[in-house]
UniProtKB/TrEMBL annotation:
SUPFAM superfamilies referenced in this protein's UniProt entry, alphabetically: Periplasmic binding protein-like I
Pfam families attached to this UniProt entry: Peripla_BP_6
Highest taxon in the source lineage: Bacteria
Protein name per Swiss-Prot or TrEMBL: ABC transporter substrate-binding protein
Annotated InterPro entries: Leu-bd (IPR028081), Peripla_BP_I (IPR028082)
Keywords: Signal
Domain Leucine-binding protein: 25-365
UniProt similarity note: Belongs to the leucine-binding protein family.
Signal peptide span: 1-20
Length: 373
């Protein structure tokens, strides 16, 4: 018998030994762990990791066996092709529960692969198309583009009393989706949308499109895109003497935006993020303290939602006394889970029945909540 066969046999015996005491449940995570958005991917992954560690510290029992949770994390690079490959990898590893993907452009194609394999997904991807596919095991654990874009437009009209705005989107599924929803609501609220320009999620020079918008004397520019582009956009607006506010969705509601944008990112930048204000949520401060103690940094935009999604899976497993994804999905669909950021209960599409949206601006490089809509 070859050495590697002996090693494999011993590994199997070891696994069987662990299996005799505990049932291993793999929790998959898919997100951008490399590239410009890695700060978000790692923060989200840490939300899952914290939940997994807590579940293993106080093990729960299903069908008479203690569960041992294992985190399997894949880097989808925020790229649709890489996301589908990451999905296949997790499926091949026998993962039945996934938290992610983060990007709408990744989540939409990857969700097809997960659905065919009977894998449950809890995603923060905001494009409405994600839940319009009709998959039973798919849950959006935050507000959608229609809520994020709409609430930002209402805030611009009602609170900021703006009259003329423009839109720039990065042509990603997320950026395009949130920008269109903002534009639709802005027009409905009586705002003039003086221009709609396009860029990409790899661009860093926005001078020509900003110069074009400067001539239109807009009071605000809504950017459908991510912080690595939003921050240089804010800097270039300042350099060009454009005094308009920069508005955006959840993906610019991050400390990275302040870090990359420096003094160009302050009260002039406003963004909308799904969920109530964490500091005002009953268990929000306790979660923030736990997260900081474990990872030596504050949780960013979605760490709490990823933590909640993992705990929601575990609670549904306990409730059904089963690890069958179909039974677990049915329990999640029918019930409600009270998490850190609020109560998760879903409509027939897998969208949250109620998802408050918080509007932020920036102080000292950090997003600061203003109000919840």
């Amino acid at each position: 018998m070859k050495l590697k066969h002996i090693a494999a046999a011993l590994a199997l015996l070891g696994a069987a030994g662990a299996q005799a005491q505990d049932t291993v449940v793999k929790i998959g995570h898919s997100g951008p762990l490399s590239g410009a958005q890695a700060f978000s991917g790692k923060d989200n992954e840490n939300g899952v990791r914290l939940a997994v560690e807590e579940l293993n510290a106080k093990p729960i029992t299903v069908a008479g066996k203690k569960l041992k949770f294992e985190l399997q994390s894949e880097d989808d690079q925020g790229d649709p092709k890489a996301g589908v490959a990451a999905a296949q990898k997790l499926i091949d590893q026998g993962v039945k529960y996934v938290v992610g993907p983060y990007n709408s452009g990744v989540a939409i194609p990857a969700s097809r692969a997960y659905n065919e394999a009977g894998v449950l997904i809890a995603s923060v991807a905001t494009n409405p198309k994600l839940t319009q596919q009709g998959y039973k095991g798919l849950f959006r654990v935050n507000a959608s583009d229609s809520q994020l874009g709409t609430k930002m437009a209402l805030y611009a009209a009602n609170e900021l009393k703006l009259k003329t705005v423009a839109v720039i989107d990065d042509r990603t599924a997320f950026g395009q989706g949130v920008a269109e929803e903002f534009k639709k609501q802005a027009k409905a609220a009586g705002l003039t949308v003086a221009g709609h320009e396009f860029t990409t999620d790899k661009a860093f020079d926005f001078t020509s499109i900003l110069t074009k918008l400067k001539t239109k004397k807009v009071e605000a520019i809504f950017f459908g895109g991510y912080a690595p582009q939003g921050a240089p956009m804010a800097r270039q607006m300042k350099q060009l003497g454009i005094n308009a506010k920069l508005l955006g969705g959840d993906t610019i509601c991050t400390a990275e935006m302040g870090k990359l944008g420096g003094d160009a990112v302050g009260e002039n930048v406003l963004c909308s993020q799904g969920g109530a204000i964490l500091d005002k949520a009953a268990s929000g401060p306790a979660f923030k303290a736990k997260f900081k103690a474990r990872f030596k940094q504050e949780p960013d935009v979605y760490a709490a939602a990823y933590y909640d999604a993992t705990m929601m899976y575990a609670q549904a497993m306990q409730k059904t006394n089963s690890l069958d994804p179909q039974k677990v999905a049915a329990a999640i669909s029918a019930g409600a889970y009270k998490g850190v950021t609020g109560t998760y209960s879903f409509d027939e599409r897998g969208d949250m029945k109620q998802s408050p949206v918080t509007i932020f601006n920036f102080k000292g490089g950090q997003p600061v909540p203003l109000t919840t809509y």
